[in-house]
Amino acid sequence: MNRNHNVSTGSLILLFVIVFVIANVAFAIAMAAMGEDAAMVKKIAMQTGIIVLVNSVLLILVDCCTGIEKKIWDRKNETDCFAGETYQLLKCSPLYFMLPIATILIDIMMVVMAWPEYQENPQALIADLMQDRKTALGFFVYAVVFHVYSIYVIFRYCGYKVYYTRTKIVVSGVFRKKNILWSEVRSIEHHYVTKKKRQELVLKTRDDKIVFRSDILNDGWEMFLSWTESLADLYQIGINGVYHSYN
Of the four listed, 16, 94, 126, 134, which is most buried by Cβ atoms within 10 Å? Predict the structure, then answer.
């Protein structure tokens, strides 16, 4: 079974700082060995420092948004949707947040690197970009592909959450909205998709089925599997056609 990748914001920020320090020290040593001006080292350190700072702020904002969302669910929906039951949460891997964040960081990096030249001679910068069609095409392809796909990831994956209790499962997301009772589940299928290195858990009711994938809903996956096994025993639901007893 896949491991649950719970990556804390603090760990990611610490990693960014360590990479920032190591990369800038290595760059400074290389520039000193080549006899380059120290002003270049300072400029690069300033630009990469801004990127690290913005990335850290974005991660903190993501954490804050997640916390606010959880509090809203606690206040509004725990009683309404779950009749006071304490629910567990299954959600997407934190890695899905990295693509939108990386896209924003690339945007900021481009602006930071181009801003001094733009301030000195904006007409020349625009003229050079217009003359170099390959560069202009590259910017256009980047803007369309990365930004559109980042928006898709935010709505498709980052907002995808599964709330579950001993009686109910609520699937929440922009493109997903389902609410079923464990007592409605007729069968459960759990299997590995070897080529894609993921697990799939399929809950089937009389009229519908819900497919959960470990590569998307990675945060809390092992707990969800254990919970499903326990509820399958409680409600006498077969897993892959076999009825188990975990008592």
Answer: 94
* Res 217 pLDDT > 70: yes
CA distance 70 to 143: 32
**Predicted confidence (pLDDT) per residue in 72-88, tens digit:** 655 555 444 555 567 78
Contacts for 230 with CB less than 8 Å, ≥ 6 apart: 246
Helices 9-33 and 38-72, interaxial angle, to 10°?
170
Tokens of 198: 């993921």
Q: pTM of the entire structure?
A: 0.59
One-letter amino acid at 12 equals L
One DSSP character per residue, 2-23 reads -------HHHHHHHHHHHHHHH
Q: Which tens digits make up the pLDDT trace of 30-45?
A: 777 776 666 767 777 7
3-class SS of residue 233:
helix
Neighbours of 19 (CB within 10 A): 12
Cα torsion angle, 47, 43, 12, 64, sign: negative
Predicted confidence at residue 50, as pLDDT, reads 72
DSSP assignment of 67-84, as one string? HHHHHHIIIIIHHHHHTT
